[in-house]
Write a structure and sequence with these properties.
single chain; 9 strands; globular
């Protein structure tokens, strides 16, 4: 079993400060462990453009699931026309992916690491106001963040003329209403504005027309938490932590019927098998691995034969899934895949905002068919209809990326476990044959 505490600041930039999993690290302990060193260094020695340049050079990718380059995202922000121009940084802490809790872990154990990342990022893009969009159910996270923000204000890390640099920043916590779609950045922005959280048309992108119509950057909690160490130690150091095209470390984990469920900070390039067998210690006695989802319920199901793939964005994409949050779910041999997918699709159908027809109508339709298959009442052609629904809810067919993610596990489930779907067909039911309807005489008066 891997020892969670066997780590140091060179190899574990996110978690090396944690020595006790039962307590949070507040201001005094954080400062004693090089906390706010990066902020002091940057405000004294680096211009905002130089901070952006360091992050671009580090090749830090967003940790929310999309994997877009963070420095490039910052660089897309238009240059400020004057010092008083409003622009915003939003920390996306609306962590609603089933089975995922990595952002909650960072918020509750290292709240000042997140705050330092927010302050540095806001300085880089020229934002004077930042919102932390927090999942409503994260009650303790909110309490700890409020305490930490107050501590940081008292030390002049937040507020006016931070550390006599002339840089001003306000940070507010905005709790969401508990909807998955708010993880989509434009739906999140609408929610902060008090509107229904439907995704917006893009373009314009938030970098030019975001919150209140002003330039806005939305970054994930784990992404922002990486920024202080990169600014303090440099991009070369960060890139050398991993032996992979994806740089740095990532919080990855495994849940399900494994002996040691949890999350760990590991370098990119680790294989899924290493994560499952060396960190999660393999499956519990009496169970075997049937399938796994690499990064949450919106990522395509994979079989055991893919366990030796590298846990990075590109490698997982190549085999037909997504890295997502990298908090993997093990599906054991006692679970029926059709029942599992029914559960997943019921969640996504409930969380759909209903804005576009394929998503609003397609997901409930898939549930009806999956229920029939689970109850052995499926008809011939039902599995083909599920495949058609997956195709019609795929990338480019819907308004946002919610629906493609929702049907991704279903598409792969049919691909790898077709027999379990076919077992739900009742061959004694009548077959609906295609027919061409003629014009009936009763349409005439």
């Amino acid at each position: 079993m891997k020892n969670f505490f066997n780590k140091n600041e060179e190899t574990h930039p996110l978690t090396w400060r944690i020595k006790d999993l039962n307590s949070s690290i507040f201001i005094d302990e954080y400062e004693n462990k090089k906390g706010y060193f990066a902020l002091k260094f940057a405000l004294k020695n680096l211009s905002p453009d130089e901070v952006i340049s360091i992050i671009k050079s580090s090749k830090l990718k967003g940790r929310g699931g999309a994997g877009f380059f963070t420095g490039k995202k910052w660089d897309l922000m238009p240059k400020k026309k004057n010092i008083l121009e409003d622009r915003y940084l939003i920390c996306n802490a609306d962590e609603m992916e089933p089975g995922t809790y990595k952002d909650r872990f960072l918020i509750e154990k290292l709240p000042h690491l997140l705050l330092e990342g927010i302050i540095l990022s806001a300085y880089a893009i020229g934002a004077s106001v930042s919102y932390i969009f927090l999942r409503e159910e994260y009650v303790l996270s909110k309490i700890l963040l409020e305490k930490s923000i107050l501590e940081a204000k008292n030390k002049n890390y937040i507020g006016k003329n931070i550390l006599n640099s002339g840089f001003n920043l306000k940070i507010f916590i905005h709790t969401g209403a508990g909807r998955y779609i708010c993880g989509e950045e434009t739906a999140l922005i609408n929610s902060i504005e008090g509107k229904r959280p439907n995704p917006r048309y893009k373009p314009p992108f938030p970098s030019h027309f975001g919150l209140w119509g002003k330039p806005t950057c939305v970054n994930n909690v784990e992404t922002l938490a990486n920024v202080p160490a990169i600014v303090l130690n440099g991009s070369s150091w960060y890139k050398n932590i991993s032996n992979n095209d994806d740089t740095g470390t990532k919080l990855m984990g495994f849940s399900g019927k494994v002996k040691n469920p949890g999350l760990w900070e590991v370098p990119f390039g680790l294989t899924a098998r290493e994560l499952l067998e060396d960190y999660a210690c393999g499956m519990k006695d009496g169970y075997s691995l049937k399938a796994w989802l690499p990064g949450g319920s919106s990522t395509g199901i994979l079989t055991e034969s893919y366990l030796d793939v590298s846990m990075d964005f590109n490698s997982i994409n190549i085999i037909g899934s997504r890295l997502g949050t990298a908090i993997s779910i093990a599906v054991d041999n006692s679970i029926n895949i059709v029942s599992l997918l029914l559960n997943i699709e019921m969640f996504f159908s409930r969380e759909s905002c209903g804005w576009c027809t394929p998503c609003r109508e397609g997901l409930p339709w898939s549930i009806k068919i999956l229920k029939d298959l689970v109850n052995k009442n499926g008809r011939l052609g039902d599995v083909e209809m599920l495949e058609k629904i997956c195709k019609n809810l795929g990338i480019g067919k819907t308004f946002c990326s919610f629906a493609p993610g929702a049907v991704s596990p279903l598409y792969n489930g049919i691909k790898y476990f077709r027999e379990e779907f076919d077992n739900g067909i009742d061959t004694n039911l009548p077959i609906y044959e295609k027919k061409v309807c003629g014009i009936q005489s009763n349409i005439f008066s």
